[in-house]
Specification:
The protein is an alpha/beta fold and 266 residues long. Strands 1, 2, 3, 4, 5 and 6 form a six-stranded mixed β-sheet that branches.
């Protein structure tokens, strides 16, 4: 499930856990096998406790702990940033614009970063907020309660774009323009975007559809489809928000990896 090429990028990022010499206990399960278990849960959406033992990926609790620990160590964020750097070096990132949007998911068990969703009969839910470059490659993602207005995450998402290396000179983190739908139509936020040297291209309320921005904004919807192709992200099952955020960050890394792999095959 984890190719040699992808594992070669992940393995150096994993923290080294020295084995105790006085009471070593059971030998720690191989990291690559546990990662396969984490990805199995992410792809299939299966509950942790139902992770099949015959696959050799360890128990669901072992996979859960590694996902938590590696997320806290920043492994998934560094993987995402490293893959963005490789894509940037291959001229695969379009910095002329970024596109932002939000998507609601149900949170059946509640927990932090949940709220009554106005688009789902006030059921408890969360929102995935995503910002992509011009081709739809994810640059940053965040999690909020389902009752949060999309526009409140406009500036935080722009600020979450990591400095992307891969070329000579300073890392790139500022796009030329940001595209968004009518949900982000507030002059206050337009001014904040302009203050960062970015051109706001935001549809306005009260005017007929057909502004032409849709030919640029569709890429973020495509990326949401890729993100929610991972069954574990279609519904939020985790009570802990950091575990769901770990899955989000890992999924963004995998999407970037697929785009990079397709470039090498073309």
């Amino acid at each position: 499930m984890v190719s040699d090429e992808l594992w070669a990028r992940i393995e150096p990022l994993l923290p080294v856990v020295p084995r105790r010499t006085d009471h070593p206990g059971r030998k720690r399960l191989d990291d690559r096998k546990v990662l396969c278990g984490i990805l199995f849960v992410l792809y299939t959406g299966i509950p942790w406790e139902f992770l099949p033992q015959e696959l050799g990926f360890g128990s669901g609790m072992t996979a859960w702990r590694r996902l938590r620990d590696w997320h806290q160590a920043g492994v998934w964020q560094r993987l995402h940033e490293n893959l963005l750097a490789e894509l940037n070096a291959a001229d695969a990132l379009d910095w002329s614009r970024v596109v932002i949007d939000g998507s609601h998911v149900r949170a059946l068990k509640g927990g932090p970063q949940t709220g009554a969703s106005p688009v789902d009969r006030a059921r408890t839910g969360s929102k995935h907020h995503l910002i992509t470059e011009g081709h739809g490659i994810p640059l940053a993602v965040s999690l909020t309660g389902g009752n949060r207005n999309d526009v409140t995450q406009l500036m935080p998402l722009i600020d979450r774009i990591p400095p992307v290396r891969g070329k000579r000179g300073r890392p790139r983190f500022r796009p030329d323009a940001v595209y968004a739908d009518r949900g982000y139509d507030h002059d206050k936020y337009r001014d904040l975007v302009r203050a960062k040297g970015i051109r706001p291209m935001i549809a306005r309320r009260g005017i007929e559809h057909g502004s032409g921005l849709g030919i640029y904004r569709w890429v973020v919807e495509q990326t949401f489809a890729l993100l929610h192709w991972f069954r574990r992200l279609r519904i939020r099952w985790e009570i802990r928000d950091d575990i769901h955020e770990a899955f989000l960050s890992l999924a963004c890394g995998i999407i970037c990896w697929r785009r990079l792999r397709n470039l090498s095959l073309s």
